[in-house]
Fold these 2 entries.
Entry 1:
Amino acid sequence: MKSIKHIKEKVTAYDNLYQAYLHARRNKRFRDEVLAFSANLEDNLHDLQKSLIDMTYRPGPYRKKVIHDPVDRLIMWQAFIHRVVQWAVYQIINPAFVRGYIEDSYA
């Protein structure tokens, strides 16, 4: 597998963070947390970009909820800003991994 060069610059690029924001808000657009982030979008993305570049970003804790469907299920999720970071990283590293996948694998 080839290495990904300049990954930090690619992940922290403003365009990548904006695309990550769009992916993270998909089907969650009108939730309070997303609306609050979107209200001051440009400043929030610049602050996030600065914290990623300065390496001061720290992922927050997961939120947890137990759903009692036929069986108990533990649902865990992160705050919206952390999902934006996850998408930003995913968008850069996934293409490198996809090249290495076996096409006829059904796993």
Entry 2:
Amino acid sequence: MILVYEEDSFVIANKPHGLPTVPLKKNPQQDTLLSRVGHLCPKVLEVIGKNEWERGALHRLDTDTSGLVVFAKTQEFYDYLLKEQAEGRFVKTYKSDTDGDTEETGISSYFRSFGEGRRKVKVEMDYRKADSPILYTTTISKKESGVYMCTITRGFRHQIRSHLSYLSCPIKGDKLYNPSVLPTSTEPLMLDCQKVSFFLPDGRVFTFDKTTSDRLQ
């Protein structure tokens, strides 16, 4: 099931592993979560996003990551939540199954792209060495040995994957950041966005948790 929740101004979809969230600019006909959601809810395709080809998608997940993605159905809601996200009031929580163990409750850093094709990002503590002077924080809550709930507000590409690897807790199935995973492995990346929370325009807090299908307003 792709759509898990819908209101007049937005819809929430559950992305499977291996499906891109939005198309590449050069390939607008690509099979993506956006195209599938747009088929079921055409209004998201009428929204003009920060990048035109991303339409109503308010955030993205890595292709290998699964979980919840919020799409705006109106331009007004898109513009509103984009601002909320920029100000750190759009919270996303991920379940991460790892090959490590840490007692850290969080990590903040900058990031720098590196490697072949700049596919990976490296944790940097000095903003002068980073791609951006913005500090990114991952809050970590230990669920059980090797399993963590990671919460972010403002997100950078591969943020949780890179942060956990830096803490010696690389995610299971992560071909980029887990040295024990072979490039030929078919094991899925064990990173799943399970909960989203944000303020609605009327001031109420909206929370959706896909593990319980609970929504609080």
